[in-house]
Amino acid sequence: MDLIKKNINAANIVFIAECIFIFVFSLMFQALSFNRNILLLSIFAILGIILEKRFRWDMAYIFIIAAGVITSEIDLHAGVDSTWYTTGVWLGAYLLGKYIVGTNKEILDKKVFIVVAVMLTGLYIQGLLNYGNYKGTAEEISGDGLSWGTWSEFFTGQNTSRTLFVFDFILTGSLIFFALVNFKKNKILSIIILLLNAGIVFVDNILAGGRLALLLQFITLVVMTAIYLVKNHRRIPQGIKKAVTIIAVIIVAIGLIVTFLKAVNFYGFADFYAGTIWGRDGGIFNNIRFQTIKEGLMLSFSQPWGGWMVPSEENGIPHNVCLLFSKEYDTFVYLLLVAFRITGLYYGIKLISRKECNNIDYMLFSMLVTINIYFIVETGPWRYRNYWFFFFMIVAMIKKKLEVISEQ
């Protein structure tokens, strides 16, 4: 009883309330009222400032506020529904990430882990519900030439594309590396994470015919493994180094062999490949997404006021979130969002470059890598601005940890 009384204080009550909000938001953010979200985020921000008795400014605020205000004003003057709520939710998400983990270095990592666990649990459940709310065969073409007619969002009933639902799984997919490096410390947790990732492959890749979730799992694991090996090369046993080298050589060899067989169409291999999910839309390396991104980048600077159309895509859109902001608004907004992402990566690299870098740091950076790649090759967060909430939360927690560390 004394232990309960000891832990019942204003900070812990606010933390629990914030975690409840994050879970509900992660579970059904597309169905929630923007006004209610902004109200709650504003309350949490004010409480965070009161409890910490300070407000620390950083560069990310400039990019978030500027991008939100400019897009809202452009929409307002264009006579469409103003997206003023973008600024409120985006700024609120960053403030929530900065204040939810507190300033106590001793329990900061525990709080970060709890926040991430709550967030990813909500997202994962939403992903299962969305994938289960299925109305046709995988990638079935609807009347408008898109696959939007076969998938329906669970909480809103809105028809949408399956690739939008992949987002619900990708951050859990980024934790494979964390599960491996944390295996000795907590085997049960690591096994749970690996099983959840196996579930992602089964649902998205095997059942639904998707490939992005699996690719993001693989790319993030490779990136994090490379970083870990470079950073800890003196402490890693030779046996592990040799094993990783052999695996890397095998992967590269398989890639080269597949590329060669496809190039010469060995026994019809290229035709077979083109008929699989991996050959769809030009395959992996020649995917139409990359062509639209290249064209979008060129058009962003040749037509900086937006309104352009990429010629290689039937709807004229680039498969890149930030480039869509350039197309619909202007290049300055694009540069602001890119600047935020670069700032976030700078914070993340600074965090994992420390000698005292721990598994929680690797977990946060893995999530940052995955969400950045998703924003590079997908379009959903352009249309549905709530998806940025998770990006801002991740960067904010990374920045807050750097601030707390610098004060010790």
From TrEMBL:
Leader peptide range in chain numbering: none
UniProt entry tagged with the keyword Transmembrane: yes
Keywords: Membrane, Transmembrane, Transmembrane helix
Nucleotide-binding recorded as keyword: no
Transmembrane regions listed in the UniProt entry: 7-28, 34-52, 113-132, 164-181, 188-208, 214-231, 243-264, 331-348, 360-376
Name the UniProt record assigns to this protein: Oligosaccharide repeat unit polymerase
